[in-house]
Amino acid sequence: MKWTKAIGVAFRSLVYFLLLAPLVVVICTAFSETNRVVFPGRGFTLQWFERAFTNAEFTKSLLLSVQIACVSVFLACVLGTMISLWFWKSNSRAKSLFQMIFLSPIVIPTIISAVAFLQYFALFRGVFTDYWKLCLTYAVIELPYVIRTVTANLAGLDTSFEEASVVLGASPFKTLFQVTLPCIRQGIIGGAIFSFVVAFDECVIIMFMKSAKTVTFPLRLYSYITESFTPLISAYSTLFIIAAAAVLYLVERKIGVSRLY
Question: pTM above the 0.85 mark?
């Protein structure tokens, strides 16, 4: 038993090492004094972080990405929750077909989705601005994540809560917002977190639908890497690693990541 336990510990340690080693490499290169990304880094400097905070182009793209992500996450959470509630209540024979349709963005390659959206919005040229094209597109590809997490919470929800609320005189609208939605709050939050990550990280779709006014942060990073691979990229990556770790810590403390499923 001790031998088996030692192998298990060694295997888990190897998995953790493979997952964390790339992050450690990125963080180490962010403090290098060289003008190129090298590992191990040479010297120690904070100049790349200073440039990261003062670069106007990256800051503008970052704010645009956050704005688009927030709007698309809101749309995805509203629509995804409504669809999940319909799946939960409906006994229609077509439910399986609709589930397959709404969850299809997960399995369809992103480049195919990008071409499809490009052709779709070409039919409505002049109706949507470039900004809203991205928001609506991102909301569609985020829907499956919200539907999966909310549906998982609804699967174990007892309908007697809603019945008791209606019997006590609450309207269906009041029951929805004061009984049903609070019960599936964890699923909605989980779907919002995953959706925000998907929207903020998306780079393929923006390549097909971008304009001069809609250069998002991932696309700005990609363009910068193709031209000049300096430790500025590592500095931005380090900042986002820290931000992601902080968000996960807060979610775990306040909600519990394991309870989102």
Answer: no
